[in-house]
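Late entry, evening session. Most of the bench is empty. Finally got around to the prediction I had been postponing all week. Sequence below, unchanged from the version circulated by S.P.
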Amino acid sequence: MPLTITSRSNPRYRGWVQLRSRRARKRSGEFLIDGPRDSLRAIQSGILPREILCSADCDLDAVAAESELGQVIAWAQANDALTLVASALFPAVCYGQRDSHVVAVASAASSAPLETLSVPQTPLIVILDGIEKPGNVGAIYRTADAVGADAVLLTGTTTDRFNPNAIRSSAGTVFAMPTAIGDHDAVASWLADRKIKVALARVDGECSYWDLPLTEAIAIVFGNEAEGLGTQWERAPHEAFRIPMAGIADSLNVSVSAAVVLFEAKRQRLSNA
C-alpha cells in the first residue's frame, strides 16, 4: 500500500510545494510535471520521475488501465514510486490541472552539449534567443515538434524550460525535443562548422518569409519578445526575413511568428520531397 501524506508540515510535502518556485527548482535540480498526459510523455521520452504523487481521493481500482492516468499509475506502482497525498493538500502541489489526480516529481534532464548534438544532413533547427516567457518557449517547442524540427537551441535566455507554464504549453514535447544551450558565439561556431545557414526573424528583414528557401540545412532564430534579436547575430553570415504585416502592429507574438515560419518550412520540405 502506498504511503499517504496527510500533514502540511511533512518535509517531503513542503519540498514539493516549494518546487513551484524557480529558485527551489534550480537548487534541488527537480521539477514538477502536472497531469497524466505530460507525465506519461516524460516517461516515454526517458525522463523517469522519482515519484508520482496521486490525490488520495482517486479510486485507483476504477482508473482505466489504457488511459493516460492508468498508464502513469501502473508505471508508478511497478517502480514503487507512487505516493498518495490527502485531497485537502493536493491542490497546493498542482499548478493548473487540479482535477488530473497526478503530479510527477522528476530530475531536470541535462541539455546535450552542443558538440555532441547530432542532426541530419539538412536539419531544421529552431534557435530561441533571449525569449523570457515560459508560455512562449513551450508553445514554440510544441510547434517545433509538430513540424518535425531536429533540435531547439537556447541562447541568451534565462528561461527555465521545465517551468510549469513551459511544460504545459509545450504539451509535453519539451521532454522529447533534442535541446542544447550555449552562448551566441558557441552556437554560431557550431552552425558554421556544419555549414548550416542562419535565418533571422526581424521586423525589418530584407525578404518575406515565404521567399526564404527553407529546404536546405537551416537554423531559424527568434528573438526576445520586447527587443527582438541583438546585433551579435549580424556578425556572421545570415539572411534576415520578415513576416509581412498589413495592420498597425509591426509584429506577431513570437510563438505565433515561429508557428507561421516553421509551418512554411514544413510546406516547402513536403513540396520538395
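Two things to note before I forget:
The first strand starts at residue 4 and ends at 5.
The CA atoms of residues 101 and 211 lie 48 Å apart.
Will write this up properly tomorrow.
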